[in-house]
Amino acid sequence: MSGVAGASDAARIGPDRLSLNQATVKHLSLAEAVALCVRHDIPAIGLWRDRVAEAGLAEAAATVRAAGLRVSSLCRGGFFTVAEPDARRAALADNLAALAEAAELGADTLVLVSGGLPPGQRDLGLARRMIADAIGSLVPEARRLGVRLGIEPVHPMFCADRSVIASLGEAIDLAAQFPADAVGVVVDTYHVWWDARLAVDIARASGRIVGFQVCDWVLPLPRDIMLGRGHVGDGVIDFGPVSAAVTAAGYHGYVEVEIFNADVWAAPADQTATKVRERFAAIC
Amino acid sequence: MSGVAGASDAARIGPDRLSLNQATVKHLSLAEAVALCVRHDIPAIGLWRDRVAEAGLAEAAATVRAAGLRVSSLCRGGFFTVAEPDARRAALADNLAALAEAAELGADTLVLVSGGLPPGQRDLGLARRMIADAIGSLVPEARRLGVRLGIEPVHPMFCADRSVIASLGEAIDLAAQFPADAVGVVVDTYHVWWDARLAVDIARASGRIVGFQVCDWVLPLPRDIMLGRGHVGDGVIDFGPVSAAVTAAGYHGYVEVEIFNADVWAAPADQTATKVRERFAAIC
Questions:
Q1: Across the interface, do A167 and B195 touch by the CB < 8 Å criterion?
Q2: Beta carbons of A237 and B156 less than 8 Å apart
Q3: What is the pLDDT of residues B45-67, one digit of tens each?
Q4: Could you tell me whether strands B229-230 and A183-188 are parallel, antiparallel, or unpaired per DSSP bridges?
Q5: What single-letter DSSP state applies at residue B163?
Q6: Which chain A residues are within 8 Å of B129, Cβ to Cβ?
Q7: pTM for the complete prediction?
């Protein structure tokens, strides 16, 4: 794709709001990803629980703090759509643990990928009620810890197996059932760019946006459709209007670049970080 | 997936409303597909233009008529999102030709797959205006011929390359710009099953539903994501509520089974037709 879809000056988001989501440099340890951010003057990082656990929670928190980085989010909680009582209790316990980790790391938001259809089930309504119920049971602890739960609508192609919350409008309707200081939505361009209601729904999300993630939709999709995401500017998403709408809706937090892509993971991390910064400056 | 998601008696759709979309038996000629429907007591067929052209339009119409079959739809028109003037004129001419073919075949509906982003463009709004403009220019001929244009919302994973009309709600908003006797929507379970607004939007489509297609969402998606569709009952879609909603919205036309799947195509056609009938009776 030639040409670059830039943002208007009014909507431009400065480099002080850039965050590198750890998934973009999947093969780095937490300490390596933190050092990469420092080398490239990226002020914030989105952390993943597996890499935090590998480093040790206290050590991870200390590493990030010593580097002077902010933690824009912790990825992730969710996967609430389990019916069997023991599995359900385990899922809730795991989410409570994730909230505690987010608090210790000083993360603004715990990102939730809600879960697909329960095994053997076809009832989307049931799955959605299970999610609402689970989020409700997490709200008191989220408020106590001062960590917001960020419901991330996930692209409808993942509805069956990853998240029945498949549009921003639906995520807002769900979040609105809970206090705004505890539950919001995370806007990820990859998941929502196609939606004819996007501008209306972002406006409707005013005061509820607790995270903003960017990457591009690149064709063709690879064999593993989880990994079809590209650097901002490599695909078809028009980032300018989305960024402007998110800003107009009152979101002034970090913008995470989160790219699941085998080629990006195979590239040298410094090259990836350079490209992330350049594209962010040019397009967001 | 064990168990079968059946329809309640109230919503049950009889075998007199079954139609076999030709794409389900992709490797058959039109004459072979017609003969298959007759052998299996399937009263209607959804035709594809390439197979009609191969047979010859007059011959195809005569073959279908002689067999006593109804033509539930002709697939397909659309692909309106071309900017270059010659290409745009060619697209409109092709759609006018498709309307004439639909009329000669006695098809109820010409199914429209609207088109993705124009090459090199990221502007979804532009693409959507191009589609509205093209449909508007086809309406007079559609009314004159008595063929309805059926806007098919296509799954959002095809938004970039096949159809920027990616949700039923959006298709209804588009159709509503035109007279109801000329423009409606086609509901295909594969494309819309994930949508939290589906029940509301089907109700809103009352009087505008001009086609209903069924197949199932089966995981994992294959390498070619066009071909991930399965026999009704093989996947995760809960057909009962969708059928009931479509019926409640006043649609009493044929229900086409349309399956893009390499394994289904490789199976003996009589086996496929038998399975289509059995699953339709059990589930729709």
A1: yes
A2: no
A3: 999 999 999 999 999 999 999 99
A4: unpaired
A5: B
A6: none
A7: 0.95
